[in-house]
């Protein structure tokens, strides 16, 4: 039976998917690399270096390891400049009550964000205390869609992966959850997140009772 729900942060709890995207788009512009919807979607949920590699696939020239670090730092400075003025208003609508509903149902709550800015963000949003366990992204070696981060969350919560439900807005995230042997709920675009057992338009629509009572939904 269900023991825990593990949430992604950017684009599920916090209104930051757009901020990451804007920072990458600015960097793409800086270096004369193309940027479009497809690239933005592929980057979602993927860690900083993985995202940079996606951007550089179509960059005008190759970059050394040292240059890549400079580019990553620049993207991060664009991102952090926005996050610094964040507060509880940047929680996505319904996010706090979604996490609280899991706790109220007697289940454990975890956070599996690839972002090294997650601790800063949780602090700014004022929701750090809602999670029983937060994965330290700096200790994860394989980016989503690898299952490592969701497995680390389950281990930290002290529960078996099969008893967990993961919630994600990125295709790479849904794949990570499924590869970990967990049930997956997608938040956002149904075509992108098609492999999830259930897809919500927003975290506001999250109803924990559906997953407690139910077998995985049969979607047609
Ligand atoms: C999350 C976001 C990604 C971001 C990654 C790394 O997974 O969805 O867009 O690239 O975190 O974030 P960071 O803050 O460490 O650069
Ligand atoms: Mg996300």
Automatic annotation (TrEMBL):
This is Beta-phosphoglucomutase. The keyword Isomerase applies. Keywords: Isomerase. The chain holds residues 790 to 1009 of 1023 of the full protein. GO terms for molecular function: beta-phosphoglucomutase activity. Belongs to the HAD-like hydrolase superfamily. CbbY/CbbZ/Gph/YieH family. The keyword Repeat does not apply. It comes from Dyella kyungheensis.
